[in-house]
Amino acid sequence: MIACDDDGNHAALVEHNVSLTGLAVDWIHGLVFWTDWGLKTVNVMNLNTKQRKVLFNEDIDSPGAIAVDPSKGLIFWTDWKKETIERASMDGNDRMTIVNSSSSTGIALDIFHERVYWADRNTNTIASIDYNENDRRTILRSSTYIKYPFSLAIFEDKLYWADVYQKGVFVMNKFNGTEVRQLINDVFEPRIVRVYHNAVQPELPNKCNHHSCGDGAICLPKDNSFKNRTGLPYSCVCADGYKTGEEPNTCVLSIVSNVFTTTVPVPVVPIPAVPVPAAPAPVT
């Protein structure tokens, strides 16, 4: 996995044993989430400290697309073999399945209306559901326009998708599936479509901006529907290579060598949040 800036400067974030299938960036908290098909994991990394954490490695078969909503503290991902779409808090808690029996290949979030969109290659459909597993809708069913949709993107009232078999990128009205047209054709196996615009990544409160979780821990936003035991909108989660210490709010660093293993307690001290401005009004 490689990061690159606008000038073309790049650096490897993860170099070894990676079978990356899905990638999502939290532009507010400086986090990147990804799914690993080979290791069967859902992962997160702090882009500033490069500390990483395996959030999920159980009951995962073939993790695919992943999406993040920093405003709500939620991540969503697909599992091809389980035919599910799952949701969890960004700190790894409150995991739940919101869609069953769907061969979903790509997902996209409408963070303003709190809906998940996905494409199903077996039923030639694009559908949506709200974050709480309610109000499921089929937006478009078409074997003409939907053959092997691999990636989705949302911008304002439009939904875009890349179709591998169609060798193109399509667009439609995200609410009712009208105004369908092909934007790009004759592209060899288009797999990713993205929209870059300020409206897609709005300025939002940073739940971790005024907090310090200490060495060995990553500050991860929490699902807005819940509060952790400190009553704060974030969790201090021990990074990989650390484990929870015996003392409260500590991580223990495990140093492994060919000769010995040692543990060193590292304090994890959450600092109470400073009030931040409210999120901007939804785009309608």
Notable traits:
0% helix, four-stranded antiparallel sheet, disordered C terminus, Neuraminidase, 284 residues, 2 domains, globular, mainly beta, 23 strands
Structural features, described:
The structure is a single chain. With 284 residues, the chain is mainly beta. The chain has 2 domains: 2-184, TolB, C-terminal domain (Neuraminidase, 6 Propeller), CATH 2.120.10.30; 217-267, no CATH class. Helix content is 0%, strand content 45%. The protein contains no helices and 23 strands. It has strands at 2-4, 10-12, 20-26, 31-36, 41-46, 52-56, 63-69, 74-79, 84-89, 96-100, 104-110, 115-120, 125-130, 137-141, 149-155, 158-163, 168-173, 181-184, 217-221, 234-238, 242-244, 250-256, 261-267. The strands form 7 sheets. Strands 3-4-5-6 form a 4-stranded antiparallel sheet, with no helix packed on it. A hairpin with a 4-residue loop joins strand 12 and strand 13 (125-130). It is globular. The chain starts with a strand and ends in a 17-residue tail after the last strand. Mean pLDDT is 85; it is low at 257-284.
Distance between the termini: 35 Å
Beta-strand proportion: over 45%
Q: What is the number of strand segments?
A: 23
Task: Enter the CATH topology name of the largest domain.
Answer: Neuraminidase
Summarize the helix and strand pattern as letters.
Answer: EEEEEEEEEEEEEEEEEEEEEEE
Number of domains: 2
CATH architecture of the largest domain: 6 Propeller
| Biggest sheet layout | 4 strands, antiparallel
| Form type | globular
Rg, alpha carbons: 20 Å
- The assigned structural class equals mainly beta
- CATH class of the largest domain equals Mainly Beta
State the fourth-level CATH superfamily of the largest domain.
Answer: TolB, C-terminal domain
**Strand line-up in the sheet with most strands:** 3-4-5-6
Rounded mean pLDDT score: 85
- Counting H and I runs of at least 4 residues, what is the number of helices? 0
Helix share, percent = under 10%
Uncertain regions spanning at least 5 consecutive residues: 257-284
Keywords: Disulfide bond, EGF-like domain, Glycoprotein, Repeat, Signal
Protein name: EGF-like domain-containing protein
Pfam families: Ldl_recept_b (PF00058)
Organism: Acrobeloides nanus
